[in-house]
């Protein structure tokens, strides 16, 4: 017997949960299929939440925020495992499970556990060990199965010494030496965490800078702080020519012939869509060579009644965006006028040490578009709260239109960057200008006060550019 639903969602991560709830809120009969015992996907179970929990534990228990400030040094015991630093992880994850399960129950969504595979454009089969297959059909489908680490054939993963990023949190011990292949978000985040925990960390990346999605100055500042505060070794613009395991050690040979040795090697240079077992070919759904589902601007696949959202469609790969993509997809699928597009202003944060965040256009992007822009910058070393926190290389940078002072974007490097980025995000979303930062009253001492002085700096730079006849008042500077 086949069970029929208005909507069938595959995957109970951020996109799947929110997409299911969006449709159910408007009275649709929804089925949510998840192969794992608990909901939340990688974000809750093995990715964002656990890694952020580990980061906070590492920063706290290593005394990193106190080193050099109060004359007190802390050292992490070398025989501790990752699990020893995850006392809060179980509580946080269980809390997230409860929130998701309550949301699902509140919307009267049918949950089916098992592996889903399309048998045709309108139907799929769910299998679970020890139970007969379950046939489910639907009017609309949402594929939200996320992504997983890319495991290229030339990398000799052994699950013990050479692992992918999904295996980091289950390592039996914190390795004395750790090599990370890849200088993107995942590689830099784990490099900071394990360096704070006392490991000797090395990053190897073929890119010419860390966090290549940001401007050079961001990667430079992060590298400087990772090197100075955490002792991380960074090899930029370097290809890996060989990797192998001998005697419980990982050997990584780079292009110049140098061989790096460590007890642990994490390959984190790319991801692929989790679609190989879904039978999407049976439903006529097109995917890329990396298994990502191709969609249009409404998140509709090549089969018009099947939608996809979240990491399974590739970049930007953020839980916050995945949720909105799924909501938009379901509103389009069912003709609901509630939400028609994902917001054009989306902040992006990376929980490295220090944190990095941005929103809108960078300076180089604005200039590449032919916009006459100017910047305003404030160093956190000159901010009272920044001095309290011991910030030395952090900064706030505003990019604005030189003609009307309208904000175009912002970049922040420093503790709390992922939180305070939402201030310029709000200004940008409402078409605001530098005048907001000039006129606003920010608490003192706070990091947000740096926005005001970045705005002052921007006005002074503009004044120098246009001269006294420009008619632009720079305003006070104190």
- What would CATH call the homologous superfamily of the largest domain? FAD/NAD(P)-binding domain
Mean pLDDT: 91
The second-level CATH architecture of the largest domain is 3-Layer(bba) Sandwich
Largest sheet: 7 strands, mixed
Residue fraction in strands: 15-25%
Radius of gyration, Cα only, in angstroms?
24 Å
> What is the total number of structural domains?
3
How is this structure best described in words?
The chain is α/β, with parallel strands linked by helices and 478 residues long. It folds into three domains: 2-148 and 272-333, FAD/NAD(P)-binding domain (3-Layer(bba) Sandwich); 162-269, 3-Layer(bba) Sandwich (FAD/NAD(P)-binding domain), CATH 3.50.50; 354-470, Enolase-like, domain 1, CATH 3.30.390. It is built from 13 helices and 22 strands. The chain has helices at residues 14-25, 41-45, 48-61, 87-106, 185-196, 216-230, 319-333, 363-368, 384-389, 417-420, 422-429, 434-439, 449-466, and strands at 2-10, 30-34, 110-113, 115-120, 123-128, 131-143, 147-149, 162-164, 177-181, 200-204, 233-235, 240-246, 249-254, 259-262, 264-267, 271-273, 306-308, 348-350, 356-360, 373-379, 395-401, 407-413. The strands form five sheets. Strands 1, 2, 3, 4, 5, 6 and 17 form a seven-stranded mixed sheet that branches. It has a five-stranded parallel sheet with strand order 8-15-9-10-11, with helices on one face. The protein has a five-stranded antiparallel sheet with strand order 18-19-22-21-20, with helices on both faces. Helix 3 packs antiparallel against helix 4 (87-106).
